[in-house]
Write a structure and sequence with these properties.
- There is one protein chain.
- Helix content is 38%, strand content 11%.
- With 236 residues, it is α/β, with parallel strands linked by helices.
- It has a seven-stranded parallel beta sheet, sandwiched between helices.
């Protein structure tokens, strides 16, 4: 039975890095290594400027804070190449492949990431869930004019899946992603196991979850039939 005032979830949009695959640790390592090549040792950026952000954004911030003179597009490409080498063998967030399959058995599924579309396709193949995710709703950072925290990617995926944003549930691990989901008018679950700034980011989300193994029995069907109220829930 649907709970009063709750919209059913007809589609789920997953972020990728830090949400489906445990790659965010390599982001910090990549930035440190690449900037060191350009003569700046032990450089780091706050996670608000890296998590959920495109490499183009990261490159712009690096250039602004270090005065490295390399062309921004070339620096972004160097960062992506270094990161791609480090993440060649992907480690899933606990429970992620089963969660994607379970979601796909009940509703429509997409992936919206700041990583390029080719990275989305590759990681979905490695997780053996490619068949679960509609290719039209795989939106990479290279597919949009404005990356997260702009809602463009999420709204584009919702259109591709022919669902209203109010009937979409987003899984995210970053401030930028949670802000983008909120701006899109979508509910969001904050995945905390790979995340930073947990108290502040929890306040941006509808609900939070340590990882997918903590989701309650029947979760996907219950959100599909609007019998589970996610507001303020914490699944641990």
């Amino acid at each position: 039975m649907a709970a009063t005032g709750i919209r059913p979830v007809r589609a789920v949009l997953f972020d990728l890095d830090g949400t489906l695959v445990d790659t965010e640790v390599h982001t910090d390592e990549t930035i440190r290594a690449v900037v060191a090549r350009h003569g700046v040792a032990d450089f780091a950026l706050p996670h608000s400027q890296t998590r959920g952000r495109t490499w183009a954004h990261v490159a712009d911030v690096i250039r602004e804070r270090t005065k490295i003179s390399r062309d921004a597009a070339e620096l972004a490409a160097e960062l992506l190449a270094c990161w791609s080498e480090a993440t060649a063998s992907v480690k899933p967030v606990p429970g992620a492949p089963d969660a994607v399959r379970a979601a796909a058995s009940t509703m429509r599924v997409g992936v919206v990431s700041s990583s390029p579309r080719a990275v989305i396709d590759d990681f979905l193949e490695q997780l053996a869930v490619s068949a679960c995710v509609d290719p039209r709703a795989r939106i990479g950072g290279d597919d949009v004019s404005h990356g997260k925290p702009d809602p463009e990617g999420f709204l584009r995926a919702a259109r591709a899946l022919d669902v209203d944003p109010t009937e979409v549930l987003v899984f995210e691990d970053s401030q930028a992603g949670l802000l983008a989901a909120k701006a899109a008018g979508m509910r969001a679950v904050f995945i905390t196991c790979c995340a930073s700034d947990i108290p502040a980011n929890t306040r941006l989300a509808t609900a939070s979850c340590t990882d997918y193994r903590a989701l309650p029995t029947g979760f996907w069907q219950r959100i599909a039939d609007a019998s589970l109220d996610l507001a303020g829930r914490s699944f641990t």
